[in-house]
Write a structure and sequence with these properties.
seven-stranded mixed β-sheet; 5 domains; binds guanosine-5'-diphosphate; alpha+beta; binds magnesium ion; eight-stranded antiparallel β-sheet; Rossmann fold; 713 residues; Alpha-Beta Plaits; Elongation Factor Tu (Ef-tu), domain 3; 27% helix; 18 helices; elongated
């Protein structure tokens, strides 16, 4: 299309549990709309959307992919997303770039865990939602039951626009619910009249005038229904339920879905409006018609051949091929060398991208996933999307000597693409640690390192990121004195260590609720600070210059060193405050270095006297298994200090178990779950909070740890 118009764009993310048929639906839609000249197929490894070698081998999606087609003069952008909970980051990033979420449901398996979760995530973002029930050509589909579950779970807004004339092999065509035929086929699994009433009830909900008319006249026409539908979908009073079979040799319901997407998915003008903040921190609603370009990076793809492609969702204004693009986060960026319209792995140049477009640019440095972009700095910023915190860690080394530099650059390329993948260096052991959502997630990324960057790595035991804190309060004193030839070193620091409540999160709260004049009468605010990273407070309560002013910052530095090093077992400390209240100096021998050391050791002594405890990460777990394994799973969780919160049954004789458990007990769970359920279980875990480690476990960890001792100790 030569001149693109925002009003004719529709953006739709295909989300839902794995194996629901999202990718197959995408292939079917592209082919039906003649956007491609061959029908891709997941099972044959020819999908337009699952084009990565690893995706082809595994036969499921690992990455989101961007696709486009035209139907009824509308430009449709589709983002096909992976359904496995291990790759949920990709699905969440996609939801942030679209107006509509199409939640794809596997007709035979019902509403699975990830389907429900993504339905909620889409709702939380006020997106328009549609449900696509796919695979209804399967034999074990019970449509009335499925519809009942759908409505119980997602609400009575779930209404049919068209109904299938049967399921399994008797599904051969779709019958209109909006304008039902005079003589509908016999033995339909669905009551057309009842469905139409539900549809009308839901549509009029969004339109007062239409509601009036309905109440007085008792019915509204098909034309009126159609005219009001898009608004009803945009406001969420209607969630259309669409049906399909997208097996390569039997595409059914696909045209109806194209119609529904093109006619009823809201345009960027009608759909949810993103909120941002201006340079002056004023909240604004981003208007797609505003001429100023505002976009957000929703995907990054590093490719051996094409280099790095950065995908932008344009929220307002427009982009030309040679425009400068600047990240509002870093203030950096550059000129794009062309705009690309992406179809799976194929790209073709675009002359203009307008509000609503999902455009890719290459060779612009310093644009990162989640960054808001503009044509100049100091522009509008959108909130950075939030992703689940990954909790599955492994220490890694390169397999070949000499690959140390390569490992770090390659891992960072993956970090750029995947918001749920982190790389850190353990300050204690100096090991490189990679963290992801699950064992499977990290295995897939390891293979990607090999195929894209020819880098092989060896992974070791997972590291548990324990933390240290003090629950009581303690006194700490240290006199640091050294006489080694020439000038000596001298410093003496007296301090008190307190537990700092977790509720405190800002400097303002720290000084209003904890470091108050009532508690610390002579507190000197100039040298007292709060550090939200560690939830740590430093209180300067020196009276009469017993520690000279110029050495107070060194005392704080010494304390901060200990925060990183840990005192008990070598883990990061948090939730403590230090009050430095007395000291001694020496006119010649005192120095910053001496005070730093004295304060660090005094802090350590005080901390160890203040009921120190280890905190461990507790994760939310959600485990889905065939119901017959429920007993075995619960029995096993019992041995893992887990707490079960609830248990639900899902259609398809599945049980989902939710609860919390210490991460340390769950690091080998992928393998354990696999052997308990013969490979039929799946699970996710996400950080919930930190909690104290039981005494006996703490003792084991402390005795195994190698805390480095200070030279004075
Ligand atoms: N019988 C049948 N199988 C389907 C249908 N759609 C997809 N499949 C199969 O279901 C499997 C998973 O499909 P895929 O599209 O990769 O699911 P995704 O994980 O949601 O993307 C593949 O083997 C498909 O061939 C359908 O409508 N009917
Ligand atoms: Mg897929």
């Amino acid at each position: 299309m030569s001149s693109r118009k925002t009003e004719s764009i529709r953006t739709i993310a295909l989300v839902g549990h794995e194996v629901a048929g999202k990718t197959s639906l995408a292939d079917a839609l592209l082919y039906k709309a003649k956007a491609v000249d061959r029908r891709g197929c997941v099972d044959e490894g020819t999908s337009i959307s699952d084009f990565d070698d690893q995706e082809k081998a595994l036969k499921y999606s690992l990455d989101s992919s961007v696709l486009n087609l035209e139907h009824e003069n509308k430009c449709l952008w589709l983002i096909d997303t992976p359904g496995k909970p291990d790759f949920i980051g990709q699905a969440i990033a996609a939801l942030n770039a679209v107006e509509t979420a199409a939640i794809v449901v596997n007709a035979a398996a019902g509403l699975q865990v990830n389907t429900r979760r993504l339905f909620r995530e889409a709702g939380r973002r006020d997106l328009a939602r549609m449900v696509v029930v796919n695979r209804i050509d399967l034999d074990n589909v019970h449509l009335p039951e499925l519809l009942k579950t759908l409505r119980e779970t997602f609400g009575k807004q779930c209404v049919l626009l068209d109904a299938p004339n049967g399921t399994g092999s008797s599904f051969t065509q779709m019958i209109s619910v909006i304008t039902p035929p005079e003589n509908p086929p016999a033995d339909m699994p669905i009551d057309l009249a009842k469905e139409r009433t539900m549809l009308v009830d839901a549509v009029v909900e969004s339109d007062e005038a239409l509601m009036e008319k309905y109440l007085t006249e008792g019915d509204i026409s098909s034309e009126e229904l159609v005219a009001a539908m898009a608004r009803a979908v945009a406001t969420g009073t209607v969630i259309p339920v669409l049906f399909a079979a997208t097996k390569k040799d039997k595409d059914l319901g696909v045209t109806e879905i194209l119609d529904a997407f093109a006619r009823y998915a809201p345009s960027p003008l009608m759909g949810v409006k993103r909120k941002g903040v201006t340079d002056k921190n004023e909240e604004i609603v981003i208007n797609p018609e505003d001429p100023d370009f505002v976009g957000q990076v929703f995907k990054v793809l590093s490719d051996k051949f094409v280099g790095t492609l950065t995908f932008l969702r344009v929220f307002s204004g427009s982009l030309k091929p040679d425009q400068t693009i600047i990240s509002q986060k870093t203030g950096r960026g550059g000129k794009s060398s062309g705009l690309q319209m992406v179809q799976g792995k194929a790209v073709k140049p675009m002359q203009l991208a307008v509000a609503g477009d999902l455009v890719a640019v290459s060779k612009v440095e310093d644009l990162h996933l989640g960054d808001t972009v503009g044509t100049h700095g100091h522009g509008t910023r959108l909130p950075a999307p939030s992703f689940p915190a990954p909790m599955f860690g492994l220490a890694v080394d390169p397999k070949a000597r000499g690959d140390e530099q390569k490992i770090s650059t390659s891992l960072h390329k993956i970090v750029e693409e995947d918001p749920t993948f982190k790389v850190t260096r353990d300050p204690q052991t100096k090991e490189l640690v990679i963290t992801g959502m699950s064992q499977l997630h990290l295995e897939v990324l390891q293979k990607r390192l090999k195929s894209r960057f020819e880098l092989e790595i060896v992974a070791h035991e997972p590291k548990i990121p324990y933390r240290e804190t003090a629950l009581g309060h303690g006194e700490g004193v240290h006199k640091h004195r050294k006489q080694s030839g020439g000038r000596g070193q001298f410093a003496e620091v007296h301090l008190r260590v307190y537990h700092l409540p977790r509720e405190i999160a800002t400097a303002d709260q720290f000084f209003k609720q904890f470091a108050t004049k009532e508690r610390f009468e002579k507190i000197r605010l100039d040298h007292s600070h709060y550090d939200p990273d560690h939830n740590f407070g430093f209180i300067d309560h020196i009276v009469g210059g017993t520690i000279p002013n110029q050495f107070i910052p060194a005392c704080e530095k010494g304390c901060k060193e200990l925060l990183e090093r840990g005192a008990l077992a070598g883990y990061r400390m948090q939730d403590v405050a230090v009050e430095v209240y007395f000291g001694k100096d020496h006119a010649v021998d005192s120095s910053e270095a001496a005070f730093k050391t004295a304060a660090r050791i005094a802090f350590k002594n005080g901390f160890l006297a203040a009921k120190p405890v280890l905190l461990e990460p507790i994760v939310h777990i959600e485990i889905t298994v065939p119901s017959k394994y429920t007993g075995a799973i619960l029995g096993d969780l019992n041995t893992k200090r887990a707490r079960i919160e609830n248990q639900d049954s899902l259609p398809g004789d599945l049980t989902v178990i939710r609860g919390i458990a210490p991460l340390a007990e769950m690091t080998r769970y992928a393998a354990q779950l696999g052997s308990i359920t013969q490979g039929q279980g799946s699970y996710t875990m996400e950080l919930s909070h930190y909690d104290a480690v039981p005494g006996n476990v703490q003792q084991q960890i402390v005795s195994k740890s190698k805390v480095s001792h200070d030279e004075d100790e």
